[in-house]
Amino acid sequence: MTSATTLSFATPFAPADSKLANYQRRHIPSFTWDAHACLPLDEKTPIDLLDTYVAGHIDYVCVNVGMDMNSVAHILRVIAAFRAKIAANPDKYMQIESFDDLAIAKSKGLLGVGFDLEGSVMLQDMPEMVPVFAKLGVKQIHFAYNRNNSVSGGCHDVDIPLTDLGVEMVKAVNTSGMIMDCSHTGRQSSLDIMRVSSKPVVFSHANPKELGGHERCIDDEQIKACADTGGVIGICGFQRFIKSKNAPEVPDMIRHIKYAVDLVGVDHVGIGLDTMPSVAGTNDFPDGVDKDFYWPAASGYGPGAGGAAVFDPRKLPALADALISIGYSPDDVNKIMGENFMRVAKASW
Known about the structure:
By secondary structure, the chain is α/β, with parallel strands linked by helices.
């Protein structure tokens, strides 16, 4: 989950576009990967929200199951509920436990689903907790959700280095079969993580600060450091970070993709939309949370901070075709749409 507004902490998907219904695809990527998505963190969440990703011809989506402000009990309830609902729909979805499962799911025409954690408070200062969550299906983690904690700095707080405990946590992630992520992480901590990690590091959902301008975006040094690890920057479709006047569309995504490709090359750019559908009667924060703390108005949230729409995943086929139309090769589009993140997964899982 990326952000909050005063009235709503989730943004529904855009209504179906009649143009999409008649859309004829020119290029079908070898594998389409959305590196970060959100469903309401509630046991009551209907799992058929994932059908939106199926409609976007996505092969794998990484779904958030908890953040720093969520209790361990809450996170475990969400994981248990999501796993059970995925298993109850074997004709549509498949829980991804290993790298080889990606090919199995695709061969069966199923949407592969993995989980991610946004923060490290749920690790309870114990590196030993990392492999426990890995066994529950968590395939990706970053260490701080906007604010500093005992492991890492957050992007909306005093810029601090990775702590000694954080160094041990990076090592645990590297050996436990997870992708090391730096989204929402403070600048210095992210650079430290990328220096310490023995595996590729990603920004699963983050945009170039040069274009987005928001504190949650990342600067050129962070982008280059990520690429130097062999990692990938997942271009985020969230309106405030993409800096679009209206709901983000294909040209907005291309603008950020092109900037990152021009800076570090096509091998280090992917997609991480950060979609946030809302469902009446569900609650991301059953234990209560100081929303103004995690999403401070001074950092660009709340009234007057701009829209909170997200690029519709059903438009990813149109994005792939648009990249072809402006001169990207089919091989390059395949990398951006999923193969780059697959490479990181193979090295990490």
